[in-house]
């Protein structure tokens, strides 16, 4: 039996704000240039202690200040300079990780940064403890004045769901388990869910999902979840390739090592869906997840095969390792048939996107300028950086092989993320559409973001929805 996947109650405590605390320790947030002014207003004993400790209010630095009895009476958090802060985010998360267990109240925090820092503080409490006992920061925070504590907690919980799903290896997060995670989410929020599996995919005209996943031990499937009865319609489509060997175009071992994260699009979509439902946004939500493994067997699709998609377009398979766009194609066609007000796909789709922008930015594609503006604005407010990429029409010819309508893996190596996005757009049916080509993985630890699975673009989208859908 695999280790218990359920969240541990004590660990989850640190993902919420402290409540009903009578005497939290004040935590003074001090910029480097303001330290002298702050010290001048303090008693001699405090000035002496801080000076002797060498505290200079550098970004992420922390210091406990004792009282006469020796117990701490306050804590200090360095907030550095404007230039230093511009090179990162969630700066107080580093302070949360350094402080001892206890409950703290922010003092001197700018209101316009309080929401970001409060979210980062909660996320600093995350650890992935399914297979080994681990813990995140144990310093708890009283919700800062002026922020929506319930919203921040809902966002943190959605991000944690995404991280847990990505971090879980494929032996415990195959298509069956991913379906189970969707079912748990649907049950918690009274959503409806239907699943089409195995040979029924062909019967229901979802042939590309079937072709990609038919070689695996667990049957391929299309998960379709609905929530909400009124308001504009939003359809989220997440790539759920639970493991990607590359198929007959087998990946090298070094490239296969992180392929448990190839369902990062599905995980991010589910995290965003949880945020939306927990916040009871006034919209109608649909979540489509093609859940498959791209494996090798006698039944695997082959290079050179020509497949017919749900919308009737033929696709030449020039690389079986370009499978994500195939499963998304059928799901997008199905989503477009529902005529949503907005459809968004999220996928760990191309290495080209990482080469272009690195692991910290979420590249996205959108034809609608107003939608792009809403996403950019939402990203800035949510500390969830994105970068707009072009649906560059002159490259359409690169995905047209001649023998079929489309090529799933154009030769030449140019513009790999753009050609993948153009491929997907062919299946969006003219729907108002955005596509995120995310990485879903933090390669090295950063404040509020330990090494491992991470959500990208979800918070930006959440913040953009009121404007994008006129909520």
UniProtKB/TrEMBL annotation:
<dbReference type="Pfam" id="PF00883">
    <property type="entry name" value="Peptidase_M17"/>
</dbReference>
<keyword id="KW-0645">Protease</keyword>
<protein>
    <submittedName>
        <fullName>Leucyl aminopeptidase</fullName>
    </submittedName>
</protein>
<dbReference type="Pfam" id="PF21337">
    <property type="entry name" value="Peptidase_M17_N_1"/>
</dbReference>
<keyword id="KW-0464">Manganese</keyword>
<keyword id="KW-0378">Hydrolase</keyword>
<feature type="domain" description="Cytosol aminopeptidase">
    <location>
        <begin position="319"/>
        <end position="326"/>
    </location>
</feature>
<dbReference type="InterPro" id="IPR011356">
    <property type="entry name" value="Leucine_aapep/pepB"/>
</dbReference>
<dbReference type="InterPro" id="IPR048816">
    <property type="entry name" value="Peptidase_M17_N_1"/>
</dbReference>
<keyword id="KW-0031">Aminopeptidase</keyword>
<dbReference type="GO" id="GO:0070006">
    <property type="term" value="F:metalloaminopeptidase activity"/>
</dbReference>
<dbReference type="GO" id="GO:0030145">
    <property type="term" value="F:manganese ion binding"/>
</dbReference>
<dbReference type="InterPro" id="IPR043472">
    <property type="entry name" value="Macro_dom-like"/>
</dbReference>
<dbReference type="GO" id="GO:0006508">
    <property type="term" value="P:proteolysis"/>
</dbReference>
<dbReference type="GO" id="GO:0005737">
    <property type="term" value="C:cytoplasm"/>
</dbReference>
<comment type="similarity">
    <text>Belongs to the peptidase M17 family.</text>
</comment>
<dbReference type="InterPro" id="IPR000819">
    <property type="entry name" value="Peptidase_M17_C"/>
</dbReference>
């Amino acid at each position: 039996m695999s280790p218990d996947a359920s969240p541990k109650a004590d660990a989850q405590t640190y993902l919420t704000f402290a409540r009903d605390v009578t005497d939290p320790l004040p935590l003074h947030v001090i910029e480097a240039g303001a330290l002298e002014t702050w010290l001048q207003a303090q008693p001699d004993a405090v000035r002496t202690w801080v000076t002797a400790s060498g505290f200079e209010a550098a970004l992420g630095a922390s210091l406990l200040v004792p009282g006469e009895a020796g117990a701490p009476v306050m804590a200090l958090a360095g907030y550095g300079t404007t230039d230093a802060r511009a090179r990162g985010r969630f700066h107080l998360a580093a302070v949360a990780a350094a402080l001892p267990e206890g409950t703290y109240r922010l003092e001197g925090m700018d209101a316009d940064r309080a929401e970001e820092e409060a979210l980062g503080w909660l996320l600093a409490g995350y650890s992935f403890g399914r297979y080994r006992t681990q813990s995140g920061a144990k310093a708890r925070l009283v919700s800062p004045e002026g922020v929506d504590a319930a919203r921040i907690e809902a966002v943190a919980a959605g991000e944690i769901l995404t991280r847990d799903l990505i971090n879980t290896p494929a032996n415990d997060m195959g298509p069956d388990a991913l379906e189970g995670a969707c079912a748990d989410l649907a049950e918690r929020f009274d959503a409806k869910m239907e699943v089409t599996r195995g040979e029924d995919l062909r019967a229901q005209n979802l042939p590309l999902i079937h072709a990609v996943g038919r070689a695996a031990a667990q049957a391929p499937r299309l998960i379709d979840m609905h929530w909400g009865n009124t308001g504009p319609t939003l359809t989220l489509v997440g790539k759920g390739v639970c493991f990607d060997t590359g198929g007959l175009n087998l990946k090298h071992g070094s490239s296969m090592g992180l392929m448990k994260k190839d369902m990062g699009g599905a995980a991010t979509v589910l995290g965003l869906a949880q945020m939306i439902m927990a916040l009871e946004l006034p919209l109608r939500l649909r979540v489509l997840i093609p859940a498959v493994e791209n494996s090798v067997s006698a039944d695997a699709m082959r290079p050179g095969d020509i497949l017919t998609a749900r919308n009737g377009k033929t696709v030449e398979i020039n690389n079986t390792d370009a499978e994500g766009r195939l499963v998304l194609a059928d799901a997008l066609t199905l989503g477009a048939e529902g005529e949503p007000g907005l459809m968004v796909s999220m996928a760990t789709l191309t290495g080209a996107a990482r080469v272009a922008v690195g692991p910290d930015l979420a590249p996205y594609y959108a034809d609608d300028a107003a939608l792009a503006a809403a996403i950019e604005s939402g990203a800035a407010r949510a500390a969830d950086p994105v970068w707009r990429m072009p649906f560059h029409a002159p490259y359409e010819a690169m995905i047209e092989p001649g023998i079929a309508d489309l090529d799933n893996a154009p030769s030449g190596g140019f513009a790999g993320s753009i050609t993948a996005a153009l491929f997907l757009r062919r299946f969006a049916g003219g729907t108002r559409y955005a596509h995120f080509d995310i990485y879903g993985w933090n390669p090295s630890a950063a404040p509020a973001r330990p090494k491992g699975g991470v959500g990208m673009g979800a918070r930006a989208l959440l913040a953009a929805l009121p404007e994008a859908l006129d909520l």
